[in-house]
């Protein structure tokens, strides 16, 4: 029996973001299809994936700020 899964299209203009999504997918299993810079994810997991991606990007931004601050101190 064929089963349809509703998805949401994400266009990854930044390859780093796509890599983060692929790593997250290993834990959360949300990618339906991936081709080039396009990813289709399960619609019911979109908000959860978005929040997790934002959290990771925020952590990276904070780490970058700490490194920049340490560099400015020299």
From TrEMBL:
It holds the Pfam family Tfb5. Keywords: Coiled coil, DNA damage, DNA repair, Nucleus, Transcription, Transcription regulation. GO terms for biological process: nucleotide-excision repair; transcription initiation at RNA polymerase II promoter. Gene3D superfamilies: TFB5-like. InterPro entries: TFB5-like_sf, TFIIH_TTDA/Tfb5. Belongs to the TFB5 family. In NER, TFIIH acts by opening DNA around the lesion to allow the excision of the damaged oligonucleotide and its replacement by a new DNA fragment. In transcription, TFIIH has an essential role in transcription initiation. When the pre-initiation complex (PIC) has been established, TFIIH is required for promoter opening and promoter escape. Component of the 7-subunit TFIIH core complex. This is General transcription and DNA repair factor IIH subunit TFB5. It comes from Glomus cerebriforme.
């Amino acid at each position: 029996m064929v089963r349809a899964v509703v998805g949401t299209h994400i266009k990854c203009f930044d390859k780093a973001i796509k890599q983060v999504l692929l790593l997250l997918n290993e834990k959360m299993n949300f990618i339906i299809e991936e081709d080039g810079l396009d990813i289709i994810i399960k619609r019911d997991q979109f908000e959860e994936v978005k929040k997790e991606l934002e959290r990771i990007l925020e952590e990276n931004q904070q780490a970058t700020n700490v490194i920049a601050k340490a560099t400015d101190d020299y």
